[in-house]
């Protein structure tokens, strides 16, 4: 397309180039090498022995000894210039005004020895060769030598300033002053952003909120005609890997408006005042291109509560950046059509002034996906996977409770890698199960050295978990049990926990009892206990402490909690209860764990023969599944018949 020559666009100013600086430095170095060294670059080099031979043959008319450079100039006679041995040496002056040039030049060592050798040869051969002494100075070379350090320092300084200012090319002079400019990456309707809302599976509530923000910018009159105001900001909050940044990418792909994307750490720099300057520049750019969206990922990098842990009392650059951000979010009017999106998984540490209405009017919680949402996420991530069969997505979703969207993407990728490692042409259902085991439990270690006695202890430990969980109504359903070492564990029992929104005390107590089943089995069978129950003890201690101090599920302490959901306890380093209460808490935790341990021992003692049969089968197969437990124990006593039969 031809350009309009009559355009009123002012011509661009040529960018300042630093390459001429580097060119000057290189020229100085080359000039020093050429002019600063010997000026006899076109003169033949010779040695002391050759000079003595030329002198004995009477070929030398004059020798000029330069005392300050330890060099000697050798001038030949007219007759010597005609000899073949001197063929090719300089016969004419390089510059007529400078007189004759020497035919040879040599470097000598000690001046006195060199002079004595020449005098002795002259006497022996009765020569009238002229010997002169002189000194030589190179003004240009000395000037270049004195300027070289300054040129190098200037060049290095410009190079470092360009690197610190992030300039990969272009003018160094302009980049030095761009350090306070925003580092936001701009996406617009011409940018190839392939992510859309179709790529965001699940998260229906969050996606609806974000889609409405896009509609605000596309059709603002629809909402402002009734007197409403467009929200200034929305904060995406949730655990890591749940899709907060993915939602922002979808907004960039769907919105036909400029989209500025950057991280909270992009405001932080080693220079004072840079963060606030970048905030001002970011909002200025957004206003100039409004309607626009600003997305700040990991905003907790600059948005932490002010005045916390500031023991030095010094001026905090991060707080200055936050203050500027607060000012800018209040500064632009509602009619500028600039909306700020931000994402964090640490909303509890953000400053209250940042969270108030008028800045982030909406807080969108992006939670871990439920069963149906995990199924939708699997559909998205299975598109590029070459599968050997039609996979049951309901089954895969049930196998991944508590997984985030990023975890499910990792499962799909890991399954493909496992299939490729096994030289398969396509990914199968078993590859996905192996991928889940790999992610949850760690890498399988079949070559780990375990003694038969240890292996037997591990088998009864895991069989104890399986037996107790099978006998308890509220324990999680068992999937499989293995004694193959994986990660840091020597064995594992895999469950599919029920996804509950609320948990009752009897459910937590049953889970604690099943967790203590491993140590209880060791006690029942061997009348000994081992260190293998460390992770079990850690888990039940946390559960018991949560029941007592957080959820108020203990009769002794009553309906009280010592949990601070904001994470900013007013008590500081002190405990929010007395020493007497602390002793009661410790006693109740210990009592609760011991009761469940004794309960597990009784269950296993009553079913000792079945426990032994299960452990022996586990030693034989190394991995057993739910079907094996049904053959040994029969149907779980509390399961209803209608739950086992398919719905008609």
UniProtKB/TrEMBL annotation:
Keywords: ATP-binding, Cell membrane, Coiled coil, Hydrolase, Membrane, Metal-binding, Metalloprotease, Nucleotide-binding, Protease, Transmembrane, Transmembrane helix, Zinc. InterPro entries: AAA+_ATPase, AAA_lid_3, ATP-dep_Zn_Metalloprotease, ATPase_AAA_core, ATPase_AAA_CS, FtsH, P-loop_NTPase, Pept_M41_FtsH_extracell. The chain crosses the membrane at residues 20-40, 143-160. The active site is at residue 462. Its EC number is 3.4.24.-. GO terms for molecular function: ATP binding; ATP hydrolysis activity; ATP-dependent peptidase activity; metalloendopeptidase activity; zinc ion binding. GO terms for cellular component: plasma membrane. ATP binds at residues 238-245. Binds 1 zinc ion per subunit. Zn(2+) binds at residues 461, 465, 536. It is a multi-pass membrane protein. It is found in: Cell membrane; Membrane. Its main location: membrane. Its cofactor is Zn(2+). NCBIfam families: FtsH_fam. Acts as a processive, ATP-dependent zinc metallopeptidase for both cytoplasmic and membrane proteins. Plays a role in the quality control of integral membrane proteins. This is ATP-dependent zinc metalloprotease FtsH. The lineage of its organism: Bacteria, Pseudomonadati, Bacteroidota, Flavobacteriia, Flavobacteriales. The gene is ftsH.
